[in-house]
Amino acid sequence: MSSQKHLKLGVNIDHVATLRQARYAPMLGSHNAEPSVLAAANEAEANGADSITVHLRLDRRHIQDCDVFELRENIRTALNLEMGNTREILDIALKAKPDFACIVPENRREVTTEGGLNVRNADTSLQRHIKELQDAGIKVSLFIDPEVEQVRAAAKTGAEMIEIHTGAFANAAADGGKSELKKIIEAAEVGHGEGLQINAGHGITISNLPTLLRTPYLAELNIGHHLVSRGVFIGLGQAVREMRTLMDSYPHFAST
Ligand code: PXP
Fold first, then answer.
1. Per-block average pLDDT, block size 10, for the chain (256 residues)?
2. Are 57 and 92 in contact (CB under 8 A)?
3. For the chain, which residues make up each domain, given as ranges?
4. Which residues line ligand 1 (CB under 6 A)?
């Protein structure tokens, strides 16, 4: 039985780096370079984030290697590194030692992570890389679509966690998203039965969150774009606080 007290909120700050890179990519060392990724992490932490998530992409379009090391040294919650299954990023993860690594599929042309990892048909490198991360003390999550076969395949890899891709649900949520929610619920139930920690993320907003919270066994949500977007108008801290408050109604923890 987990001693976890509430549904955890991982705040993804990739798009704070997106904004900085839009102006300062060629001059990151400039005293003018802003907004600060570390300051955003600290603001999220001060307002209820349980962890900070960043995706170090192969093309380095937003988060840079130096951001990962700066966050590792200076945040006071946990660091969750999203990463493609590549040797290059794995070596950085082994040096930076985030608390968690979430392995995601990565395709250079995509705007954002489009689908889940195909764990069922993954080559042997996935299993090897999971083991290398775990041997370095890093807990591993696999970002997968809400499909029972993928959940069972993820459990076989020895990863401690899955993160259920909620993108399709988020896109359908304006029309109710019922069939997508059903898939997420089933994936969470199967994953829990397999002994996996169940996380979820992608496209979560304050509008679709109440419906998503019908999913049982959730331990953590990773939320980025919406929080940074709302932050433009109401401040990142307030956006995180609002999300935290809504998440506190999650019945799985409220009843225990
Ligand atoms: N979880 C994973 C694995 C992701 O790749 C992303 C997008 O970077 C997120 C969560 C956050 O998604 P969003 O920015 O839509 O909240």
1. 84 98 95 97 98 97 98 98 97 98 85 83 94 98 98 97 97 85 98 98 97 97 98 98 97 58
2. no
3. 8-22+32-255
4. 12, 14, 55, 82, 102, 104, 112-113, 143, 163, 201-204, 222-226
